Amino acid sequence: MPANLTPDYLAAEKRFREAETTEDKLAALEEMYATIPKHKGTEKLQADIRRRTSKLRDKEKQLTRKGKRHDDFHVIKQGAGQVVLVGPPNSGKSSIVDRLTAAEPEIADYPFTTRRPLPAMADFEDVSIQLVDSPAMAGEHTERGVIGLARNADAVALVLDASNDAIIDHVEDVMGEFSKSRTAIVGELAESRDFPPGIVVKPGFVIANKIDKQGASANLEVLRELYANEFVIHTTSAETGEGLEELRRRFFESLGIIRVYTKIPGKPPDRDKPFTVKRGSTLIDFAAAVHKDFAAGLRFAKAWGARVLPGAQIGRDHVLEDGDVVELHA
Q1: Mind listing the domains of the chain with CATH numbers?
Q2: CA–CA separation, 115 vs 324, rounded Å?
Q3: SS3 of residue 247 by DSSP
Q4: Three-state secondary-structure class, residue 168
Q5: Per DSSP, what are the bridge partners of residue 158?
Q6: pTM of the model
Q7: Contact 236/208 with Cβ under 8 angstroms?
Q8: N or C, fewer C-beta in 10 Å, the chain?
Q9: What are the percentages of helix, strand and coil residues in the chain, rounded to 5?
């Protein structure tokens, strides 16, 4: 990588990697070109950006002439966040979605029943989370669209059949398919590490399903021995319902978000519609999420929560917690 790339360039490059539409990719490329240092060490990179920009513009023109094609694997995000369920054939992804949402996915004993992504909303307390059932991943039979679906999601849940003696092979096969596409699924328990440029990193966890079946206990022991230091392993049985209600919280926690409630001075807090912000967000981050004018003109704020005295005034850099109530004064 050429030296002296600016933070603005790196941020634009990140937006390009995460962009879902041609329009967003073009905007990111244009910003990359505008912010890249212009010297001999970046000449090849500048040329590459121009080439990619030209290619995308040609593609956009072709789509405009032909009419935009529908992408079956593009799912518009809804709710507090999107979690994509991936896994080998017959692991029970569709059964989990069926039990936790109002959707009615096709469920059968034969593999590759799910052909296209199926989004559905699952409730967790006072927020809704979008779950996306996806076609099975099985080596060369894996639909490339599943990888793109996971790359654009907020989190990934790897669903496994705990009763299948090949459970470890299934983990390695799925992770291998992601690796081929320069994608890394990383558990929250894993040691922090740096990835090469161009690698898309997504938070993930494991759902060990079918724990009511014969052989599941022994396979779970092996799974935990190998992966418990990296991934949260949540055990369920979509058939009996064991672990399903607790799974709602796991989906929420995998998104890395918190709920913050607003309060108008002199009135009780509004607990019907919380704002969701990234875990670790400060007061000023929350104010911007409510309205940009609050962030610009915020004078002070009061808060109620587990780690603050009731009604105490908090500073702009105060880190909020899930369930906090904030009264903004602009």
Answers
A1: 7-66 (no CATH), 82-254 (3.40.50.300), 258-329 (3.10.20.30)
A2: 42
A3: helix
A4: helix
A5: 86, 206
A6: 0.75
A7: yes
A8: N
A9: 40, 25, 40
